[in-house]
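Deliverable D4.2, example record:
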Amino acid sequence: MPESILIIDDSVPLHKLIKSYLAPEILKIRSAYDGESGLTAAANPQPSLILLDMDLPGIDGFEVCRRLKANSSTASIPIIFLSASAVTSEKVKSLELGAMDYIVKPFKPEELCARVRAGLRAKFNWDAVTMVDGPTGLFNRAYLNSHVSLYIALARRFGTPAACIMVRLDHYDALAARHGDAVVSDVIRAVARILLNECRTGDIVCRFDESKFVLLISNANRKDGRLLAERLGAKIKGQLNQFGSLEIRATCTFGVSDTSVANGDTLIDRAETALPGPDQRVPNLVDVVCETADDLPVAA
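Output generated by the structure prediction step:
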């Protein structure tokens, strides 16, 4: 999927000129011609980079930048200001508002392309940091939320099912109280390695919260998901029964759903709902429990 650029500028000829300059970069380019429509276009779908004119009808570029940076959902989008003015105070103000760069019109094609590439690298590096769980190195919940709909859409496009497995480390608080936070952090990392090693390259493994993980499994239904969950449970129980000199006896509980009963918005929720509650479990650390969403109402 190509990276996307949003141009917010009231000059139609400038849009055409920028698109011709950036044609070799293989980018998806969208246009907005005033501040308000630019804010709307930036919200959904979010671009990888915004080229923002300073002088716009209605709200000016400074105000557009301020609003984008004040909104947590758009704050990470790199913004490059476009302006006919080379006044230093305006450059300083744009950078203080959070813009990453400032280009004075008219600009040369190679200058624009170089600065756009730098902006896209900045966005990639930002996403790489903000969408990875530091302790485990897995993708985090932000990544999951931003990619699950695309993952499901691709599965439906190719006519294949997709399964979601919610994994919960059992007795997380009890393990922390008994062995300490450092040991539980090591256990979490060990579980993450097992999940990653047992899944295929095309599957997505994410840390959902402090004690839970989510797996998105391509070309798999609930039956396939349950079989994988049972294999994972056995691996975790076998490998984490003893942790160094400590007897941990760590186990996990699993909930499974698939695209036959859920869509991109509910797939994860239904897998989490399929997790047995603590009162449904026999209080034995070595139990392996897996439930699926088979008996839940089918999503409309």
